[in-house]
Design a protein that fits this description.
Length: 865
């Protein structure tokens, strides 16, 4: 009955509830502007896109420098419109000269003043003299008597060409050396002037890269890279300039482009590769893992370039190419996701642990994304009270994926209600609705619940103290006197106990610390990760700070400052564009450059964190602490504090001038319409970078209360809620994990206003049994323990580094150093004599030796000694 005593009050209430649910569902289905992203997470994008992202659009004219002129056909080149116009202009010039109106000297002066423009109607970044002196590949082929058609040569002939070009790399003259470098880069690019399609270019690039590696080109270009890094004249010239441009890094860009092309091609595994090519790829991987001639790993040298660039010592370094090469070198040497799963499985097997229940990346591939919470920000953040209450009521509704079940129960439970629901005045009754697929028969949680051993121990201690009144320290088996439900709960917890590889490694370190002589550490296996960490350790803080500086400069929300680093120097031409179209093209190129750099930095940091955590947890903690101390957490939040959907759907790509499309086939002129070409609903690299940053933030904050409090202090909850608008399952899972960490600190009012987010966490994030993450009763969350937690962790990490990579403490004290007791060794040891002794030793000999009377017979008398 209603307030007036009518019996139909309940029926009207049920109709009103059904109407609200139907309207809410239709708003989520029909009013949703952001469809689900068909994004599949992988280690890299497609091989063609990875190669295309190496080159900026400002570098497009340089492709024609490597090989001068268009492809020649058997019947000769077809005349272009420019050639026809130049012929007509020649006839007019001859007529003017013959009639005496213009002299030939005046015509020659005008011709010299005329600026050079390439045939693709793009502005060249080279001067006229430099363009005239660099017809590299064709000129060198003619000079050495080789044919110009690379595809028609035999294998022996191609090898001879490569060896001939390598001989020119040792020349002291810069122009001659640059010709050979550009010619070899053209070969590595697949000799694109002789191909007809992108697939043919990729096939020839793979064939040529294998040939170049067999001939030793990779090692030769590494030596050239080391020479260019130490080239002080180029760095000083760049420092004197007000603005560094593309022309300041020409040699470095050619070297890095060839190295990156070879690494990327050798990284990709082709099923059609013969056995000798597979062995060659393994040899290439082994070469990258070994120290080079300068005593450093290739990855460490490249990270050193990033650090020098950020310090201001080398502003001409092309950061995009350097970071892309660092990323691909790490992928080749350390391995990607599949290699990580294998290493983790092997590590758990060696430690006697069961296999991992699920892999997050693999499980999220088959998960369905959730609809974003209604309202992009919190209901309490600067909104009117009425609007906040409406959003809160809508937030209390179930998700659209669960609405069908509730509505179905209402329809089947009350036939009259169903008839009333089909009235004409119901909201949008005739609108078509997509059918929801039937749920699987074994519908349940996507994750296996986990529990830590310390949680089981805390549960038993609390139960014993409550029901029996005694404590047993570190006892997981004694349940005498406890009620049956408590025993059943303990058995459930024990079935889901999960022990991580990190816990085993920490226990082993504590054991070594307690018993350094009886249980010492055995010889450490020199894995690629171990060698990389040992090489990075002396300058690791500088490397992490440099990477975060570059990431900050590449963030879409960052503002350009006078003292900030210029990561766009290798995309800026010497002369700024003068037309609107060229300005738009340059703007797209610069935005694309930032996105690629953000993708590379996020991938490098995530790869390092994941591999170091599998190798040893204290290596991971050392890197993590330096990232946290360098303000990595607020930096990532700053990255997401933007219109995330605009960032995800940005289209800073011009397909017609991507490599190799810009050099294969007939080239169309870049117009305003070609700038808008592209039908992909999202930008792959931006989604990839966003997921990487979320995964990195999860790794930094997991089980670290002080870092979780940093998320709360920097007000990350509304920022992360905006990220839930992206309908991609993997991105939503990692965002919800970050929200789950801090829910207990956000207060009751926030939880009441964000019940839909709480429901999504329950539905999609793994459950930790006995984890009261939504209520804030955790005794480990005391704020006064935060600083002590970080300090204790730092002490343990420092002891680990000192023991494994530094000089032992007992050797630093001279009292405990071993003494050399062998006569020949002691006598052969060099002795430093003071200046006073050298000046007075003759008088000392005369006074103490020659003038002294010594009775040698006393030495043999009994009892003298």
């Amino acid at each position: 009955m209603d307030s007036n005593g009518n019996a139909n009050g309940g029926k009207r209430g049920l109709d009103k509830l059904r109407e609200i649910m139907l309207r809410n569902k239709e708003e989520s289905e029909c009013g949703d502007d952001f469809p689900e992203l068909e994004f599949e997470y992988a280690d890299t994008e497609s091989h063609m896109n990875e190669i295309a992202e190496l080159y900026s659009y400002t570098e497009v004219p340089e492709f024609q420098v490597n090989l001068r002129g268009p492809r020649t056909r058997p019947w000769g080149p077809l005349p272009t419109l420019r050639e026809i116009l130049s012929t007509e202009a020649g006839l007019i010039r001859d007529f003017l000269v013959e009639t005496g109106r213009v002299t030939r000297d005046d015509m020659l002066k005008k011709k010299k003043k005329k600026k050079h423009r390439p045939e693709d109607a793009t502005e060249s970044v080279f001067s006229e003299d430099e363009s005239e002196s660099l017809p590299c590949f064709d000129e060198l082929m003619s000079e050495h008597g080789f044919g110009r058609c690379w595809q028609s040569m035999r294998d022996e002939r191609r090898r001879a060409v490569v060896l001939k070009l390598m001989d020119r790399l040792d020349l002291s003259k810069r122009d001659a050396r640059m010709k050979a470098m550009r010619a070899l880069l053209y070969v590595a690019q697949g000799c694109w002037a002789e191909v007809q399609s992108d697939q043919e270019q990729a096939s020839w690039a793979r064939t040529n890269v294998i040939l170049l590696y067999r001939c030793g080109v990779f090692s030769a270009f590494l030596e050239l890279l080391y020479l260019e890094i130490e080239n002080g004249s180029t760095a000083s010239a760049a420092l004197r300039k007000l603005a560094v441009s593309l022309a300041d890094s020409t040699e470095l860009r050619v070297v890095l482009s060839l190295l990156y092309t070879m690494v990327e091609v050798m990284r990709v595994d082709d099923e059609c590769d013969p056995d000798d090519v597979r062995q060659l790829r393994e040899q290439f991987r082994s070469e990258l893992m070994c120290p080079q001639d300068n005593g450093e790993l290739v990855a460490v040298t490249l990270l050193g370039m990033v650090a020098r660039f950020c310090s201001g010592a080398a502003p001409h370094f092309p950061m995009k190419k350097v970071l892309l090469l660092v990323w691909k070198v790490l992928l080749v040497t350390l391995g990607g996701s599949a290699e990580l799963r294998r290493l983790k499985a092997e590590g758990r097997a060696r430690a006697g642990l069961p296999p991992e229940p699920e892999d997050t990346a693999e499980r999220t591939r088959h998960m369905r994304c959730s609809s974003p919470p209604l309202g992009s920000v919190d209901a309490n953040d600067g909104q009117p009270r009425g609007q906040a209450m409406r959003l809160m009521r809508r937030g209390l509704m179930k998700q659209p994926s669960l609405d069908e079940d509730a509505e179905q129960e209402l329809e089947t439970g009350n036939g009259a209600g169903k008839a009333e629901g089909e009235r004409a005045d119901s909201p949008r009754p005739d609108s078509p609705r997509a059918e929801t697929p039937a749920p699987p028969p074994n519908k349940g949680l996507p994750w296996t619940p986990k529990v830590r051993s310390r949680d089981v121990l805390a549960f038993l201690d609390t139960s014993r103290r409550k029901f029996v009144g005694y404590d047993l320290e570190n006892d997981l088996t004694s349940t005498a006197g406890l009620p049956s439900p408590i025993k059943e709960g303990a058995r459930v917890l024990e079935r889901h106990v999960y022990k991580s590889l990190s816990e085993v490694q920490i226990e082993r370190e504590e054991e070594i610390e307690r018993s350094p002589f009886s249980r010492p550490e055995v010889d450490v296996e020199q894995t690629p990760v171990e060698m990389l960490y040992a090489g990075m350790l002396p300058n690791l803080p500088q490397y992490m700070i440099a990477l975060l500086k570059v990431l900050l400069a590449a963030a879409p929300t960052s503002k350009t400052k006078t003292d900030s680093i210029n990561i766009l120097a290798d995309a800026l031409p010497e002369e700024m564009p003068m037309t609107v179209l060229k300005s738009m093209r340059l703007g797209i190129d610069l935005n694309r450059q930032k996105e690629i750099i953000g993708k590379a930095v996020s991938s490098v940091l995530l790869l390092l964190l994941k591999h170091l955590k599998v190798n040893h947890v204290y290596q991971f903690e050392f890197v993590s602490q330096h990232l946290v101390f360098a303000n990595c957490i607020p930096l990532v939040l700053k990255f997401f504090n933007q219109d995330i959907m605009a960032y995800i759907t940005s289209k800073n790509t011009i397909a017609v001038i991507d490599f190799p499309s810009c050099v294969i086939g007939d080239q169309s002129e870049v117009t305003g319409d070609t700038l808008e070409i592209g039908d992909q609903p999202f930008c792959w690299r931006n989604v990839f970078a966003s997921i990487n940053l979320l995964r990195m933030l999860n790794k930094l904050c997991k089980w670290k209360h002080s870092r979780i409090m940093m998320l709360v202090v920097f007000k990350s909850a509304p920022i992360l809620k905006r990220a839930l608008k992206v309908k991609q399952a993997m991105m939503q899972v990692y965002t919800l994990k970050l929200l789950k960490m801090q829910t207990k600190y956000l207060g009751r009012q926030w939880r009441k206003s964000n019940m839909k987010t709480i429901s999504a966490i329950y539905q999609k994030v793994r459950h930790r049994l006995n984890d009261d993450w939504a209520f804030g009763n955790d005794v480990d969350a005391r704020p006064w323990d935060f600083r002590a937690e970080e300090c204790q962790l730092r002490m343990r990490v420092d002891r680990f580094n000192e023991r494994r990579y530094g000089e032992p403490e007992w050797l630093s004290d001279p009292e405990y150093r071993p003494v050399d007791s062998e006569l020949s060794s002691v006598l052969g040891r060099p002795v430093e004599l003071t200046e006073e002794f050298r000046r007075d030793y003759r008088r000392w000999l005369h006074r103490e030796v020659f003038q002294a009377q010594i009775d040698w017979d006393q030495l043999v008398e009994k009892g003298y000694l």
